[in-house]
Every structure is written in C-alpha cells, then in structure tokens.
Write a structure and sequence with these properties.
The complex is a heterotrimer of chains A (267), B (260) and C (88). By secondary structure, chain A is mostly helical. Chain A is 69% helix and 0% strand. Chain A has helices at 11-17, 22-38, 40-55, 62-66, 81-100, 116-126, 131-158, 167-189, 194-208, 214-222, 229-261. In chain A, α7 runs antiparallel to α8. Chain B is elongated. By secondary structure, chain C is an all-alpha fold. Chain C has one domain. The chains are: A mainly alpha (267), B mainly alpha (260), C mainly alpha (88). At the A-B interface, α4, α5, α6, α7 and α8 of A face α4, α6, α7 and α8 of B. The complex binds protoporphyrin IX containing FE. The site of protoporphyrin IX containing FE has 27 residues of chain A, from α5, α7, α8 and α11. Protoporphyrin IX containing FE (HEM) binds at residues 79, 81-83, 85-86, 89, 149, 152-153, 156, 161-162, 166, 169-170, 173-174, 176-177, 180, 251, 254-255, 258, 263-264 of chain A.
C-alpha cells in the first residue's frame, strides 16, 4: 500500500478542481501550511465557539431592542470615550516608542546647566525632522487621554453603569485612572527642565509626608530626598518599562470584562 | 464524522504500526455526561462543578421564562455594535489630536536648577486637584489640648485627603445599589456626582490660587460652597423633571422588560 | 431634545477648538503669564489680524449656537407644545 493517499484528503487536488483567484489560492496554501504544523483550524474553531457562546445570546443592538425611532442615541458620543481613551493610549505608545529613539534619560546635575536629557528634548524639538510633531503628538495624546479617561469615568458614573455586575470594572477603572496620572507625572519629569524639577520636588515632599513609610517611599520612587539625577533615571524606567506593561495589561482586562458583560443599558 | 472515522480505521488497519487507533472516541449515547465524569471529584473542585451545574440550570430557566433572547446580565453587545460606532467617532478625535499637535507644539522651559525657585510651580493640569488638596492646611484641625498644635503635619493631611477622596470614589458601587441608572431615577446620586465634578474643578483652581485674581479667603469659601450649590440645583431640577420623564421612560422601557 | 444638545455641543466644541488655535498663536505671548487670553500683538500683520477676527467670530458663533440649541430652541418647542395642548 502506498503511503500516498488519493482520497478526499488530497487538498492540492481539491484546490485544482476549484477556480481560485491568486489571492484565494495563496491564502489557502498558507492556511494549509500552518494548519499542518500548528493545527490552526482547531484553535479557530475554539475561538468561533467562544464568540457564538458569548454573542449569540445578546443579538440585538439597543436601537433594535427598544425600537428607538431616533437613531441618535446609537451615536451618542459619550459611550465612545472608553474606546477613545484606548486609542489615545495607542497613539501615545507609538509616538513614545519613536521618541525613545532620540531621548536619553541622563542628567548629571541640577544646577541650571543643560543636561543630556534636556539637550535631547531640544534636539528633538529643533533639529530632528518632524521631531516637534512627534513630541507634540505624544504630549497632546497624553493630555487628551487623561481628559478622555476622566470624562469616561463621569459617563460611567452618570449612567449608573458601575452597578452590579460591573463593580469590579469600576474598581479596575480607579486603578487605571490613577496609573494614567502617574504615567503623565513620570513623563512630565523627563525633559528635566525647571517645571519638571519642581514638580519632582512636590512629588518628593508628598511621599515624604506619608506617615510611617514616607522616607522609604521617597527613596524607592525618587531615589533620594530631593530630585536628583537618580530621580530622572527612575522616572524613565517607570515611564517606559513598568507602566506600559501594567497599564496595557489592565486595559486589556478592563475591555475584556466589558466584552463579556456587554455595555450597560439603558442608553 | 464518527461514521467515516470508524470506516477508515478498519480500512487502514494494516498501516497502523502502534497497534491502535487514535484513542479519540466521538461522543455518543454511551459517553458519560459531564456530571458523571466529575462524580469522583472531591472537595473544592467538586463544589466548583456543583455550582457550575446550578448556574447553568439557572441560565437555562431564565432563558426559557423570558420571551426574548437575553443573558441574565443586562448589556448590549460590545462587539460589533458598540465598537463600530466607537471606531467611527474615535478616528475623528484622533484626527483632532493630530491637528492639535501640528498647530500647538509643547513648551520647554529652562533647564532644571535647584538653586532658583520659579514663581510658578505646577504639575500638569490633571494633577491640580491633588495639588489643591495639599493646600487645605486651613482645614487642618487644631487641637487645643496640644496647645494649638495641629494633629498632623499639613502635608500629611493633604496626602490623607487624596486617599479619602479616591477611596470614596472607589466604594460608590457598594454604597449605591439597585436598578436605577439614569440621573432622573436617582437625583441624590446625580447631585453627589455633580458636586464631585464641581469640587474637582474648584479645588484645582484653589491649587493655583497665587495666579487667580480672587481673594484667598473668598476662594477657599467658594471651593467648598460651589459644590453644594451645584448639588442642590441638580437635585431640585432632577426631582422636578422626574415624574414626566419617568413616565416616558417606563412606557418605552417596561413595555420590553416588564418589572418582575 | 438630545439632538439639539448634540448640535449645540458639536458646534461649540469645533469652534472653541479653532478659537484655541488662534488664541494660542496670537494671544499667548509666553508660557508664563496669561495664556490664550493674553494681549494681542502690538502691530499685527495681515495674518494676525485675520486670525484674531476669525478667532473672535468663531468664539461668539459657538457660544451663541450653544445658547440657541440648548436654551432657545427647546423653549420654543415647549412653548409650541403648550400652545397645541391648549388649542386642542
Ligand atoms: C485607561 C483608562 C480606561 C480605558 C482605556 C477604558 C476603556 C473602556 C472601554 C473601551 C469601555 C467600553 C465602554 C465605553 O467605551 O464606554 C469601558 C467601560 C467601562 N469602564 Fe473604562 N476605561 C478606562 C478607565 C475607566 C475608569 C477610570 C473607570 C471608572 C472609575 C472605568 C469604568 C468602566 C466601567 C464600569 C465600564 C463598563 C461600562 C458599561 O458597561 O457601560 N473605566 N472602559
């Protein structure tokens, strides 16, 4: 018996009998190649199953469900604020990654001399092609994200969308808005200009005044009891390493929960 | 699937070298049910499965009772209904971000200098509220027992105020329960919300009091007065709107979802 | 009612965005001190003049539009509903 099979499992033969366009046949070839090795189809099936289990039980949009003659409510922009926060976050992440190519978080002094960090910002703003647009985008998307998150919280509050079963998402949201502000704060210190330095000063004093653990917190987060070059280093690592991972993961969970629970009614 | 499987197994028997089929048995009447398979589980996993079965049954019953398809969670599908709308709206706003960036690039000040304190020390605007809470020292209770000393340092007081406010916002869902969702249905909580928003604003203004052209005492009074004014007005308006609004709402809403 | 709210809101947001740009360009002499509401340049060139006029016009247009759609139009509607009720 030959090892070659000549039954309906001959996918090549099956493809030849079909009149496939270039795109279709390349797609099928890739799919088959991957499926042979990774059992893609099994996973697709699982996903599809999941999708139908979750979605087919809530098939109607609210305009259909309530027969709203006025389709306006579907477009009610306040419900898009959560997505807008996400998108602003993405814009900030992309522009931030690009800024990271040109920025170095090094400072040697706090005596009014331009440091490496400060100089890299000036370079970005004045010499780099489109650098000002890059920093501008990063700044504005961060500002807009904070505003959008705050307004999103208000919309959730005033539509009572935090009630059972969505309390957990509300709590997660509180964590998210706090982290968003910390994100903004750590970024604010990075140019290492006067504003940054003195905002750092406020931060240090605030952590120092926490009862019992104040000094420990100041050491951990700011690397000292006044803003100093180590502060800049720590803010940088928080801003480009810790926070991105944490916030991205939390946003994913937040939106995952919304996906499972659906948007609270009524609109 | 199952039929063809058994067929091909017999046909290609001689080609098998490991002496057996795939070992995968398609489900049929003989296949043990879910609960039978879990019968020998003990302890926590047992409890888990028992609860699963209960909740499945509850879902099933709810669905059969209901005259339209729904989950026991009240919600509209986030995908695709909401997200398509959101994508349309948000891409417009991303355009707005780009417009702003192109027209108004950010500022960069002089380099950090610990020797010269600038006249204006400010964080970004969204931290003003927190910054303002640090300036509440005039509210820090003075204890006559301690000879006019305050209970804690002003800054500690400010940091605690931050914790109190964030903590309060966090426990809102556990304080305000029930089915009401719209502001007209719950004038009190809407008023609390409005006063919160106004307070966030006034406390932010208080934080920049050195560049606001109002006397300090007046500003401090306004900071705490305006939220209450806002709350009372909101409460009054919503209460008076309530009857007519609820009638319309109920007509549309409870027609579809009769009260239990 | 919601439609009216959105119309006013849309106009207000768009015009104030554009106003903010003109004010940011021509009425913000420096970062420290007055922003957006600062003094206009002493000797505005033609672009500055044009932008200042357009900025002001947009600002007022937005404010009036908001007033019209949020206050005046709903009031007229209420009034008409009230009159219809009486006449019927
Ligand atoms: C980084 C910040 C945040 C992001 C990216 C985000 C994203 C989202 C998205 C995309 C949704 C879907 C519904 C919608 O767009 O309105 C949502 C819903 C929700 N968010 Fe957020 N959110 C953030 C912060 C917050 C905050 C600060 C809170 C409250 C304290 C919050 C509480 C909620 C709740 C309770 C829901 C469910 C609302 C419903 O089902 O109608 N989120 N979030």
């Amino acid at each position: 018996m030959s090892l070659e099979r000549k039954d309906e499992h001959d996918h090549k033969g099956w493809m030849e009998t079909r009149d496939l366009s270039k795109v279709e046949s390349v797609y099928l070839m890739t799919l088959m190649y991957l499926d042979k090795r990774l059992r893609i189809v099994d996973y697709l099936e699982l996903l599809e199953d999941l999708y139908y289990k979750v979605n087919m039980q809530m098939p109607k949009s609210h305009t259909e469900q309530y027969g709203l003659d006025n389709k306006f409510w579907y477009w009610y922009p306040l419900y898009a604020l959560g997505s807008f926060s996400t998108l602003a976050y993405v814009v900030a992440a992309v522009s931030g990654a690009l800024l990271g190519f040109y920025y170095a978080p090094a400072a040697t002094s706090t005596n009014g001399q331009a440091t490496i960090a400060y100089n890299s910002i000036t370079f970005i703003m004045t010499d780099l092609n489109f650098g000002f647009m890059l920093r501008s985008l990063h700044r504005w998307s961060a500002q807009v994200m904070v505003a959008a998150v705050f307004l999103h919280m208000l919309r959730v509050y005033f539509t009572g969308a935090y009630k059972e079963p969505r309390e957990l998402n509300w709590l997660l949201g509180i964590v998210l808005i706090s982290l968003t502000m910390v994100f903004g704060y750590t970024g604010y210190l990075l140019p290492w200009d006067q504003l940054a330095f003195w905002a750092g000063q406020i931060g240090v004093e605030m952590s120092l005044s926490i009862p019992l653990v104040g000094e420990w917190v100041a050491q951990l987060i700011f690397g000292g009891f006044t803003p100093n070059p180590a502060t800049l280093q720590r803010m940088y690592i928080l801003h480009v390493f810790f926070l991105p991972f944490i916030v991205t993961a939390l946003i994913a969970i937040h939106i995952g929960i919304v996906w499972m629970q659906g948007i609270a009614e009524p609109h | 699937m199952s039929d063809t499987d058994t067929d091909s197994e017999t046909e290609t028997e001689d080609a098998q070298t490991d002496g057996g089929g795939t070992g995968i048995v398609p489900p049929d009447d003989e296949t043990p049910t879910w609960s039978e398979r879990k019968k020998r589980k003990q302890g926590l996993s047992r409890l888990t499965y028992e609860y699963f079965e209960r909740s499945r049954r509850e879902d099933q019953d709810l669905r059969q009772e209901s005259d339209y398809v729904e989950r026991d969670v009240l919600g509209f599908p986030a995908w695709p209904h909401e997200m398509i709308r959101n994508l349309a709206l948000t891409s417009f706003f991303v355009g707005m971000i780009m417009f702003l960036s192109a027209t108004m690039p950010p500022h960069i000040g002089p380099p950090a200098n610990s020797g010269s304190t600038p006249a204006i020390i400010l964080p970004d605007w969204y931290l003003y509220w927190s910054f303002g809470l640090l300036k509440l020292s005039f509210l820090n209770p003075e204890l006559s027992l301690l000879g006019g000393q305050t209970l804690m340092a002003d800054r500690t007081y400010g940091v605690l105020a931050n914790v109190v406010i964030v903590g309060f916002i966090a426990i809102v869902p556990f304080l305000n329960k029930g089915a009401a969702r719209r502001p007209v249905e719950q004038p009190f909580w809407a008023a609390v919300g409005v006063s919160g928003v106004i307070f966030a604003f006034t406390i932010a203004v208080l934080s920049v009091k050195n560049i606001v052209p109002i006397g300090e005492g007046l500003l401090q009074d306004l900071t705490f007065l305006l939220p209450f004014v806002g709350a009372f007005i909101t409460y009054g308006i919503l209460k008076s709107m309530r009857e007519g609004y609820m009638f319309n709402l109920n007509r549309r809403y409870y027609r579809l979802r009769p009260p239990k | 009612m919601a439609d009216e709210f959105m119309k006013g809101f849309g106009i207000l947001v768009t015009t104030s965005l554009l106003w903010m740009v003109t004010a940011g360009w021509y009425k913000t002499p420096s970062f420290e001190g007055d922003q957006l509401l600062g003094p206009a340049p002493e000797e505005p060139d033609i672009y500055a003049q044009l932008s200042l006029v357009i900025g002001d016009a947009l600002l007022w247009f937005g404010l009036i539009a908001a007033l019209v759609f949020w206050v005046v139009v709903p009031m007229i509607n209420e009034f008409q509903a009230y009159r219809d009720e009486r006449s019927s």
